[in-house]
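haha ok so turns out i had the wrong file open the whole time. this is the CORRECT one, sorry everyone. sequence first:
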Amino acid sequence: MPRSEARIFSSAWQDQDFLALSRSAQGTYFFLLSQPDLSYCGVIPLRLPRWASKAEGFSIDALRADLEELSDGPKPLIVIDENAGELLIRSLVRNDGVWKQPNLLKSARESAEMIESREIKTVILSELHRIPIEQSSSDLVKEVLAGFIADLEGVSDTRPTDPSANPSGKGSEEGSGNPSRKG
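then structure:
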């Protein structure tokens, strides 16, 4: 089931980390969020030529610079695995509310089976551990989330020794990593 909408929170404009990004990187982040082939687990195939063609005067080099800016710093918004050809919007499952809806969470779990990148799987696992599951009254959500975590922990080299640690090595897990949402 492809996504048909993107949630962009107005709180992005109060997030100091997001405000520190260039206008171009901010736009690229919103562009990535709104792609129809972005999976519910937050992964999209890396398609630089296609993406660069979506705006007049945009180039692959400019897009690469934006992606580098989004993946660097103390709170990276994205994780890129060029070898696997995959990009992750790190906090999508948690901050977009995918985890709150059992059917969307099931879709996220199913789409995660297609991920080739161990690094991306490790980051998703870390993000799943950050979900405030105690806020859910749904036994089905709790069951699906537990299964999703077990799936990723079952893949070698994806079990973080400390779920609060940053598996990407690119900054702190202290912030939300999503400029449109705090926490």
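The first helix runs from residue 16 to 19.
again sry for the mixup
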